Amino acid sequence: MLRHCLTLDLKDDAAAIAEYKRYHTKIWAEVRKSLVDAGVLEMEIYLLGTRMFMIMDVADDFSLSAKAAADAANAKVQEWEAIMGGLQQPLPGSRPGQRWVPMELVFRLSEQ
């Protein structure tokens, strides 16, 4: 099993943050299916202020680029992403159009 850790900011707006949380109390079935079908085994999103941190545990054959391609062809996922995009803001230093940014692993207890 592999793990991906990504980060992103929400807009600094209490209503936008509340809306984001509300959407994530019960994600759309099509969005959940797209995650499972792509090989996402578990996903957690944490929030501190406006900064989010996502942990994705994925199958060994999971591919971020394949997931992005499948999402681009899924109208319901694109609708979800458009709504989420309106609540999110890019991180400083991210590429144009980039939202979730992979984080660098700097420490693992089991390797010490």
What does this structure look like?
There is one protein chain. The chain has 112 residues and is α+β, with helices and mostly antiparallel strands. The protein has a single domain, classed as Dimeric alpha+beta barrel (Alpha-Beta Plaits), CATH 3.30.70. Helix content is 36%, strand content 27%. Strand 2 (40-48) and strand 3 (51-58) form a beta hairpin. The protein starts with a strand and ends in a 10-residue tail after the last strand. The mean pLDDT is 96.
The CATH topology, please? Alpha-Beta Plaits
Distance between the termini: 20 Å
Uncertain runs are none
The CATH class, by name, is Alpha Beta
Structural class: alpha+beta
Count structural domains: 1
Mean pLDDT: 96
Largest sheet: 5 strands, antiparallel
What's the CATH H-level homologous superfamily? Answer: Dimeric alpha+beta barrel
% residues in beta strands: 25-35%
Helix and strand topology:
Layout: E1 2-10, H1 14-23, H2 29-38, E2 40-48, E3 51-58, H3 64-72, H4 75-85, E4 88-89, E5 101-102
Antiparallel strand pairs: 1-3, 1-4, 1-5, 2-3
Please provide a brief summary of the model:
The chain is of the alpha+beta class.
Structural features:
alpha+beta, about 110 residues, 4 helices, single chain, Alpha-Beta Plaits
